[in-house]
From TrEMBL:
This is Electron transfer flavoprotein subunit alpha. PROSITE patterns: ETF_ALPHA. It comes from the Eukaryota. Belongs to the ETF alpha-subunit/FixB family. GO terms for cellular component: mitochondrial matrix.
Amino acid sequence: MAAMVVAALRRGRGGCSSRVFAQSFRRFASTLVVAEHEGGQVKPSSLSALAAAEAVSKENKISVLLGGSGPALHKAAEHAASSHPLVSEVLIAESDAFAHPLAEPWADLLRSVQQKGGYSHVIASSTSFGKNLLPRAAALLDVSPVTDVTAITEERVFVRPIYAGNALCTVRYTGVDPCMMSIRSTSFSPTTTEAMSETKVAPITQVDLSFLSEGSLGKSAWVSLTSQDTERPDLANARVVVTGGRGLKSAENFKLLEQLAEKLGAAVGATRAAVDAGFVPNDLQVGQTGKIVAPELYMAFGVSGAIQHLAGMRDSKVIVAVNKDADAPIFQAADYGLVADLFEVLEELLKKIPDKK
């Protein structure tokens, strides 16, 4: 590839050489998607990363990188192999070192795969894992990552939010390969089942793990995972989200919100104020420093609408707000607003909405 580009540049002059180089670059665009999986399936946020890779170039060759061990990894690899028409290969790093989202071994893995594959782009979703991994891997590769991308206009031109989502910035990456970016999964819709029905199954290849050393494995250790045992959908991917703020006043009152969520088949969210007050655990926090959501319906009870919270839910399709303060900023973002006592509203909703079957 390098020889062809050099030859093209020698043949061209001035602006012509730039155009030839751009055409050559587009022809050889390739992307590595760092994917997450759970229960033998690629996570929806990673499927959105595949959609972002397609936005880079329709002729893009996409490689998917998965790590872990056991049958769940192989099942997820099979899912990834047929998850998008542009996926050309699935790389699996089968080792207990990658069974948990520890940044140190994963960063070394990403550096090794990039050095062998020579990808033009590396994409991860802006999850806690992606945010932890990408900066460390970028430092090892001596490049600067572009974070929280919400749109891709050209192969190296991206749109990302700034000022807590109140403005959008268009940036051009001018560094060397790879162009590393994290994407907001809510901004890229995964390929539909219908579009994937005739997709060719990509080959699955084991990654050479001879680079692993005690240095990368001994810097941190996995201790435990604590999560809520619930049948409610994942907050980041739920179609309906019911969120409570400081106005709910106590953890006991949050149970009213949970009852409503059960009836609607919704996920429960919270503001930072509610989390800091100890009403709910911090994994339910929605906002700039929490989870970014964009459900079809977002219901906010007792949420004032701080700028940091709005940054995490402003892309919701329909926003419904209930607050007794008519001047609450949340009403400026809401499609439907009700100035009322949230406890009276919750009581009425719980009475009139039937239980989910």
